[in-house]
Design brief:
Elements: E1 2-8, E2 10-12, E3 18-20, E4 28-29, E5 33-36, H1 61-66, H2 76-85, H3 87-91, H4 106-124, H5 130-138, H6 143-172, E6 190-198, E7 201-209, E8 213-218, E9 222-225, E10 252-259, E11 262-267, H7 269-272, H8 280-292, H9 297-311, E12 317-325, H10 330-347, H11 360-370, H12 374-382, H13 386-395, H14 397-405, H15 408-433, H16 440-490, H17 498-536
Antiparallel strand pairs: 1-12, 2-3, 4-5, 5-6, 6-7, 7-10, 8-9, 8-11, 11-12
Helix pairs in contact: 2-4, 4-6, 8-9, 8-10, 11-17, 12-17, 13-16, 14-16, 15-16
């Protein structure tokens, strides 16, 4: 039994054309191979506008890619896979250069061409067919000889991909079209797992480059990552496939064997790097819950697709290729998944119900990073406390008043108000001196309106300026005196209002309890994650089941 998951971000144009954004290749599974490749949308973000028209034509696609590259590419499985791999390109055939977002990046072409190259090797090279390759390995006299033979498989694919990728790119007119300094031509990851089921074991040869991951799952051992991601601490990859002149890459190869029953699968980082996963434990739990709630591989695939449609938005694609090995039917695998879920609940979730829902570790680390000590956190948290602010504002009201009175804008507004008042007084005196001059009344009305407007402007400006000055002065007062005030109050020294003392003591106690609780939760969460990770990473350390 095999299944795949292929989720891509997309956008529908006004004319109804669907533009797919992902660079992941179509995941592949058959009776000997599971494979994914994640084209690099960042490191290989070169847009290719001058590709050969034949790439848009389903009937001409393979000839456009492989004529002169291979003598024979007629295998129907290969042809079907390659045609389906490029369906996103055909979708934008009539509007490819209308919008930059319709133009495919280098990573898109890389992932599809590389998976086609790998698939053709396994389909058309008899020595590399699983039944022949594993049989040949089994005849070797020692582990050392077998390791050498497996290494040669990696070397073979390194050289084959490097040569055929460049030749295919030339055929398809894929090249640097403008200045893309620092970007990779045809950059992609690859994870391919060639396997053979034999008796009580499943044998696997891994072919990897980059940070897409191969996994194994067993009911007893849970989920295990099989190789370390090839990336730097800053997230950049140290090794991936590319076609740049003068640059090299390595297809790593590794032989492994696992007890049947097991699940082997490959996944792109659009799956396991989901923000929904605080730990690989959450990834395993998601896969098992999809199995538990399904009645077939097809339904499980749909459930996982739905999950990543909602939780995979950090990436344009989420891709899985999976083999269920040694199970008589899906129901048997589903029951194994249910038992493992019960074990996960017993060992982990029951110990901490919020284990996979709240990032206690991250929250605690952020709290410590936001301030060097508990006092800094307390100072920060009390700054907006209503009682504290009222106390600080009372302490600086005279300062705020002085700042406001000396403000140039306020002085100008006051002068305009006084001038308008003088005009009203002048007109009032004129009217009082000559009661028969009724024409002065119209001027008086205008003068009163001007005074009212000037007064309103002055009072509004002064109110806003005073409030701003009061806030600024209070914040400054708090920043300069907070530590001493808090220390005095915690030490029982008097001189502060009872309400302020009570608020600060309450906040200090609450913060201490919060940090203690958060620290305890973070420590417990880390211990549970570390316990899980010891099994999850055991193959990376070179151990065997």
């Amino acid at each position: 039994m095999e299944l795949t998951v292929y989720r891509q971000a997309s956008k529908t144009r006004p004319d109804g054309t669907v533009v797919y954004k992902g660079e992941d290749a179509l995941p592949y599974t058959d009776g000997q191979l599971v494979m994914v490749a994640d084209g690099l949308g960042g490191a290989a973000a070169i847009r290719h506008t001058s590709i050969k028209p034949g790439l848009f034509d389903e009937d001409k696609l393979l000839d456009t890619l492989f004529e002169g590259v291979y003598d024979d590419y007629s295998d129907p499985v290969l042809q079907d896979y390659v045609r389906r791999s490029f369906f996103e390109l055909r979708a934008v055939k009539d509007c490819y250069t209308d919008n930059v977002n319709n133009i495919k990046k280098s990573g898109y072409f890389a992932s599809r061409i590389v998976t086609a190259i790998v698939l053709r090797e396994f389909l058309c090279n008899e020595k590399l067919a699983a039944k022949n390759l594993f049989a040949a390995l089994g005849k070797l006299p020692s582990e050392e000889k077998r390791a050498e033979a497996v290494a040669k498989v990696g070397t073979h694919f390194t050289e084959k991909i490097a040569d055929k990728l460049r030749e295919t790119a030339k055929n398809a007119n894929i090249f640097y079209e403008s200045s893309y300094a620092g970007l990779s031509l045809l950059g992609t990851t690859l994870t391919a797992m060639l396997y053979r089921e034999l008796g009580s074991e499943t044998e696997v040869i891994l072919l990897t480059a980059g940070d897409s991951r191969p996994y194994v799952w067993t009911e007893k051992g849970g989920l295990c990552q099989l190789v370390r991601d090839e990336e730097r601490p800053d997230g950049g990859m140290t090794n991936y496939i590319k076609a740049n002149d003068g640059e090299t890459f390595t297809i790593n190869s590794k032989y492994m064997r696992f007890p049947r029953q097991c699940v082997i699968f490959a996944a792109s980082d659009g799956c396991f790097d989901s923000s929904a996963f605080l730990s690989p434990l959450a990834f395993e739990k998601t896969i098992l819950e999809a199995a538990r709630d399904s009645s077939s591989p097809e339904e499980m695939s749909k459930r996982l697709y739905g999950f990543f449609l909602e939780h995979g938005r950090h990436d344009d694609s989420s891709t899985i290729a999976m083999k269920l090995s040694g199970f008589s039917d899906f129901d048997e695998f589903r029951r194994a998944a249910e038992r493992r879920l019960a074990e996960i609940d017993k060992l982990y979730i029951s110990q901490m119900p919020q284990l996979l829902d709240e990032d206690f570790i991250g929250e605690y680390e952020r709290s410590l990073n936001d301030a060097p000590d508990e006092m800094s956190l307390l100072v920060s948290s009390l700054k907006t406390n209503e009682t504290v602010r009222s106390f600080c504002e009372d302490a600086v009201r005279d300062e705020a008043e002085e700042l406001t009175n000396n403000d140039t804008g306020i002085k100008n507004a006051e002068e305009l108000r006084l001038s308008a008042r003088s005009e009203v007084q002048r007109r009032a005196a004129d009217i009082a001196a000559d009661e028969d001059e009724l024409d002065d009344l119209d001027g008086m009305v205008d003068a009163v309106k001007s005074l009212s407007a000037a007064k309103e402007t002055y009072e509004s400006m002064r109110g806003e300026k005073y409030a701003a000055n009061l806030r600024t002065a209070a914040d400054k007062y708090w920043s300069e005196h907070a530590r001493a005030m808090i220390a005095d109050i915690k030490d029982g020294k008097g001189g502060y209002p009872d309400e302020l003392t009570a608020e600060i003591k309450s906040a200090a106690d609450a913060l201490s309890k919060k940090l203690a609780s958060l620290g305890s939760s973070a420590e417990k969460q880390k211990a549970l994650f570390d316990s899980y990770n010891a099994a999850y990473t055991k193959y990376i350390g070179g151990e065997q089941a």
